[in-house]
Amino acid sequence: MSYKIAPLTVNPSQKSNIISHVFVSQPSAEDEMLVGRLFLLIEVELERNEDSRLIDFIINKAYEHYYESEALILRDRLPNLKPEIIFENSIAKLNKDLGAYIEQEKIRLKPGALNAVIGIIHGNKLFFAQTGESKALLFYRPKNKKGELLADYSLVDISEKTTDPTQEIAQSNKFFTNLIAGAVPSHGYFFFANQSLFEYLSKKQIVDIVTTLPPSGAAEQMKNNLEQTNSFVPFFGLIIKNTTGEHDAFAAPAATMGLPGTRPLGYGRSSVNQLNLTQEKTEQLLSPSGFVNVRKWVAKLRPASAGLKAYANDKARQLNISKERFDFSRTFSKISHTIAAIGAGIFSLIIGGARNLFSLASDREKRSELKLTLKRQLRDLIRTSVGLIDRFNNLNPKHKTLVIVIGLSVVALLGNLVYSGISDRRRAKEEQLAQVSAQFTQKENQLEAALLYNNREGAGQILGEMAALVDSLPKRSQSEKTIQADFKKRYESRLDSIYNIVRLSDPAPLLELPEEAEMLLSDNGSVFAISARAKSVWKIKAEEKTFETATNDSFPEAPLVGASVDDPSEYYIGQTQVLGYKSENGQFSSFGIDNPPAIIEAAAVYNNRLYAAGGSSIYRFNFDARNNVFSGRSNWLREDTTLGTFTSLAIDGRIFAIENGTISKFSGGRREAITLDEVNPVLQNPTKISVSPDLDFLYVLDPANKRLLIYNKNGKYLAQYADAALENLNGMTIDQKNRMVYFLAGKKIFRVEAKHFQ
Length: 758
Prior knowledge:
Elements: E1 3-10, E2 18-24, H1 29-35, E3 37-45, H2 53-67, H3 70-73, H4 83-105, E4 114-122, E5 125-131, E6 135-140, E7 154-157, H5 169-172, E8 178-183, E9 189-193, H6 197-200, H7 203-212, H8 215-229, E10 235-242, H9 253-256, E11 263-264, H10 269-286, H11 294-318, H12 328-362, H13 370-393, H14 397-452, H15 456-472, H16 478-499, E12 501-502, E13 511-512, E14 519-523, E15 526-531, E16 536-541, E17 546-551, E18 562-566, E19 569-573, E20 577-582, E21 587-593, E22 602-606, E23 609-614, E24 617-624, E25 629-635, E26 646-651, E27 655-659, E28 662-667, E29 670-672, E30 688-691, E31 698-702, E32 707-711, E33 717-722, E34 731-735, E35 740-745, E36 748-753
Parallel strand pairs: 12-33, 21-25
Antiparallel strand pairs: 1-10, 2-3, 3-4, 4-5, 5-8, 6-7, 6-9, 8-11, 9-10, 13-36, 14-15, 15-16, 16-17, 18-19, 19-20, 20-21, 22-23, 23-24, 24-25, 26-27, 27-28, 28-29, 30-31, 31-32, 32-33, 34-35, 35-36
């Protein structure tokens, strides 16, 4: 069915203890096609404000029981899903959970305090249940004797014969007790609303508004009318319009909708039978294919057993076995001793062989006797086998027959035990998968709710629980790995959308360098990889997936403590020396460091000055062009502050640093507070930091989690680039001109489009 649906909610502007809410689910296209859309209308009068959580509880449980039912989860095993059965079972569960919740939270509900409708629309069918004084109206165009549709709409109050406003729901826990089902006529409408709405709008007004306007417009029109009329009473409503062509399923509306014979859910005999049927179907669903259903096979084997019995009697007559001539006790004793001897012989061979092999494996001196021992074991095996065969041949024909039958029975029994064990393990795996699937879907729904209320902390916790569920899945076989990968993909999709994660479009590296590099730099649209060990600079030619090499023997001693761009040169910084490189002409220049600290932990060149962290301070050196040296060391810090160990520096006028594994910020020679937004998973052991001089971006490399995090310069989280392929990260750079992000992993260079500029 093609339909339109529009909710209506008007809560009073004046303070009131009555709350109204309308919920319309947004399932996936597949779920909607299979089982339709769920809707709820709830009005509740509460004595305490905190009891308002009751509404959320009803909605969450209704959604969970319907869309996370076993039948829907295991839909591949159910050829024909019946939404009405799933719906009825979900209502039964909701009634039970709702009663328990009210008792647990000590919520007091007076008679008539809860007015609610829960329903689904699937195809051209509508199923709903209600409690309290809620109204359900059907508008349809009847036909004349010629079968032609009349112009005027007729109205049927479906709820008149199904509601019981005096019902003591708080004590009986029988909340939704009437299930109504039927087809929606072509161009027909269903209108659900609370009783109060009909005190301010007449049925004629409602019919005129609903049938002349689109559902959304009709809902808005009624809302405007109600808001102008009253500011003390809450209202709710839901309009459903069938927009398909002609349909004859509603020739008798009341009968089609199950009236007057509506049935109390879960209390009549028909409902019990239906629930039993549902239980049987659930058992079928949860029994994996190949699992031996004992009761079913016993029933099937009864005729075969009778046939075998007749066959045995016939064989007995052929062998001239009679009660007088056949001594059962003696025969059975003889046969049992024979079978025991055969079993003991086989067992002795297995144990003896295993013991000898273990002795040989644990004793070096005996290993030389392996060949002889194996020959002896083979000889013993042949001798024992011949003896067992002779013993069997000495039996008379009828005893041989019985031995064979008993032997085959034992083999069949053992085979069935093995098969049952395998089936049990398979069933346990499928039940675990179904359980994880249900829990995972529930976490997805909780995540949506957390994001709806901007609960970022709660969303992060839920994501962690989803990751734990993915990790709990077995990953031994290829099929298990495939299933686990599917769940991981769902988890990463949620993670990516929440945290703006960009992943590699191609997990293969862009290119591979001849040796491992230490750092990456971007200079005016070109990207360079630097290695002091190889005394080389490699210019990356991304489009050709190759590189150009420039070498120089004046490279500082590895490892480098910093690399930076200060137009027009790049600077590669060591403990006592700085190497300058002009990429436009490939010219190298070597500069000394006058009076460096004992250890430089991290350094960068900015505005023709060298900044070096180490020795419990941050030092600044001026560039002396005449002597090609950075000199005039001064303490850049203007205050006493305890410094940790520095890993990386980046400068835009302020200094950003990785200090003791955390991000630090200094401005004007003083420490400035900065706190980075939390991310999931948490930042751990960052190794590189970079800033954009002219844009508000702070880049932090997190190799442990194979990603690059992006913040603004006040620590607000913006986005990240992450991928499982980014193993052993040790460098990154941003080609701002071409809007590309480059990663360095030893010899490998990776590239991804920089989408955080958008």
